[in-house]
Amino acid sequence: MLNLWLRRNDTRVPFRNETIAKTVVHHTEKNMSLIHKSWLELKPNENEDGNQEWFDEYYKRIKLKKEYKNIPKEVFEQWIHAHHKNYETLNNYAWIDYEKIEFKLLKWSFEKLENINIIENYREYSDSRAMCNDLSQFCCCDEDLKHWKENGTWRIPPIILDVNSIIDDIPKWSEIKEPFQLVEGHSRIGYLKSMNRISKLGKEKISDNHKIYLMTKVRMHNNV
């Protein structure tokens, strides 16, 4: 394991993680800092073999950190815990200060969701889920499939970034585009497009609105 120090806002933070370390080295060679200390504080623990702690253990520990009470359990489970070391997550979102981020549970229409920005490496994957003509073609667990059939929408709200709220802070290397970007839920967005087609075919009925977590930077009273 590599043991590196990362400088961010004059704060030196130690961390042990090969995937993160390689990414940081790549950018720090260009005098860039990539990983915010808040992202490191949200890192799942690993044993000596590099195996990550189970979510229940992780959440029991992380929910005690009062500075991150703004982050819903579903956001931790589907994204921060599950994809903490993912390259695209590190490259695009690990620089953010998560003490200053809120996740608003909102309802959006299909029309507002269908053209949301998806990073290039995940577009083909998401598009492949958007080609179904029947619910039987959805590749998901029974619980999710039942929810699609009964409610015409997904069971767990995906995570969407309000890009305009962080527009002044975005680093040059990040693939982030206005006005909204899908952070997590690429299968769900694809299946929603399929659900819209299936609804038009008269086989099922798509919901009028769909729950999402809107990830937004909180504007503090001192404008930071």
Largest β-sheet summary: 4 strands, mixed
Helix/strand class: alpha+beta
Shape: globular
Average pLDDT metric: 88
Rg result: 19 Å
Give the quaternary arrangement of the chains: single chain
Query: Distance between termini?
Result: 35 Å
The poorly predicted ranges are 1-16, 25-33
Helix content: 25-40%
Number of strands: 6
Strand content: 15-25%
Task: Identify the strand order in the major beta sheet.
Answer: 3-6-4-5
Please characterize this protein's 3D structure.
By secondary structure, the protein is α+β, with helices and mostly antiparallel strands. The protein has one domain (3-217). Helices cover 34% and strands 17% of the residues. The chain contains 9 helices and 6 strands. It has helices spanning 18-28, 37-41, 55-62, 73-80, 87-93, 110-113, 120-128, 142-151, 186-200; strands at residues 3-8, 11-16, 101-108, 159-162, 180-184, 210-217. The chain has a 4-stranded mixed sheet with strand order 3-6-4-5. A two-stranded antiparallel ribbon has the order 1-2. The two termini are 35 Å apart.
